Structures are given as structure tokens and as C-alpha cells.
Amino acid sequence: MPELVTSPYVLGLVALGGYLLGAVPFGLVIAKLLGLGDLRQIGSGNIGATNVLRTGNKPAAAATLVLDAGKGAIAVLLARALVGEDAAQVAGAAAFLGHCFPIYLGFKGGKGVATFLGTLLALAWPVGMAACMTWLIAAGAFRISSLSALIAAATSPLWAYLLGFEDMTLLASFLAVLVWIRHRPNIVRLLDGSEPRIGRK
Fold first, then answer.
1. Which of 50, 72, 176, 192 is positioned for an S-S bond with 153, CB 3.0–4.6 A?
2. Phi and psi dihedrals of 83, rounded to 5?
3. Residue 132 burial (CB count, 10 A)
4. Does 75 reside within a domain?
5. Residue 170 to residues 24, 31, 40, 82, 130: CA-CA distances in angstroms?
6. Pick from 83, 86, 48, 88: which is nearest to 69 by CA?
7. Has residue 1 been placed in a domain?
8. pLDDT tier for residue 57 given thresholds of 50, 70 and 90
9. What residues contact residue 144 under an 8 Å CB cut-off, 6+ apart?
10. d(CA 103, CA 118)
11. What secondary structure, in 3-state letters, does 136-180 show?
12. Are the beta carbons of 130 and 121 closer than 8 angstroms?
């Protein structure tokens, strides 16, 4: 973590703002606006881009991916510009928590992969790019989206350290643990061999 130089009261406001932004369920909103149905009743019931893709609407899935990543990035960039680097990390963590546990949906949210990557990209783009490339390489090798996300999350603290962003390693570790917790059902399916592969219904 960077040195905490900002007032706890200000950091509390930053955390609240980041959380409320992160809690906006863009996938659910886009699906409703386009008449795709209630995502919570489709496929896995998840509100993220992967489940939006199950509706067959690729542009809607792409928009959800960008917006879910963007809310993490915007939270970080705004906090950095208005307050400082310590606030940026607080805002990123809060936005991620908001996506995973949104107050608007009874704290039942998404798995956070897009928001996780968007947050990393905004905090330190080399770390974010390394995590994205890790996901892509793992996806190409194993053809399993959830496994790729788990690998990308697990290696993100290492990337932060190796690329010279040591003050990010604690946050990256925190986010990675949450990504793994949110993927518990996927981990069970990975272990029993029933997790679907990319491109297979």
C-alpha cells in the first residue's frame, strides 16, 4: 500500500463513492434496455459480460465488459486526480467490492473479473496489461474462461512486484483472493471436470 496521507474521513467518502459506482449492474441494465431478459434468470444467473454473451448478443456483452472494467478504472482515476494515490487504491478496492456485492441487488453481484482488470489497468497499466495477457495466454492454452481468470488473478501480485509496483502487491493480493472466492462454484466444476470450455455451449 502507498503511504496513507489522506484524512480517514476523506478516504471513507472515496470508498463510499467507489462502492456505489462499482455496484451499478451494467450487464443487468443493458440486458433490460435491449429486451434480452433478466440476466439473473439466464445461464449462470451472473450479471457479468460472460452471461450477457449467453443471450447471443455480442455487442451487449462487449458493452458490459467495457463498462464493468470502466467503473473500476474511473473510480481509480477520479480518486487519484481529486485526492491522491492512497485514495486511488481505496477507490479501486471499493469499486470491486461494489461489483461483487452491490447494494442495489441485495449484495448479490458478479464475479468481478472485468472490474478487477479495469482497476489494475488504471492503477498501473503495465500490471493491468500483464494480467490481461496472462488471461489471454491461459485462455488460449486451456480454453476455459474461469481458469484463465483464476490464473490471471493469482499472478497479479507477482506482476505488481516484478514490474516495480510493490505498493500495489497488497491490493492485488486482496483482489485476487476475492476473485477466487467469487469463483468457488467454478473451482468445484474445474475439479470435477464439468466446467464448460470457451466456445462450447
1. 176
2. -125, -65
3. 16
4. yes
5. 25, 35, 32, 23, 17
6. 48
7. no
8. confident
9. 190, 195, 196, 197, 198
10. 21
11. HHHHHHHCCHHHHHHHHHHHHHHHHHHCCCHHHHHHHHHHHHHHH
12. no
Kindly report the backbone phi and psi dihedral angles of residue 180, in degrees, each rounded to the nearest multiple of 5, phi listed first: -65, -40
pTM: 0.91
Domain ranges, residue 169: 8-192
Q: What is the pLDDT of residues 67-78, one digit of tens each?
A: 999 999 999 999
Does residue 125 fall inside a structural domain?
Answer: yes
End-to-end CA distance of the chain: 42
Three cell numbers written together for 74: 474511473
Cell 462499482 belongs to residue = 22
Q: Is residue 198 part of a domain?
A: no
C-alpha cell at 134: 496472462
Domain count of the chain? 1
For residue 191, give Cα distances in angstroms to 147, 184, 187, 188, 195.
Answer: 11, 11, 6, 5, 8
Question: DSSP label at 102?
Answer: -
In the chain, the percentage of residues whose pLDDT exceeds 70 is 96
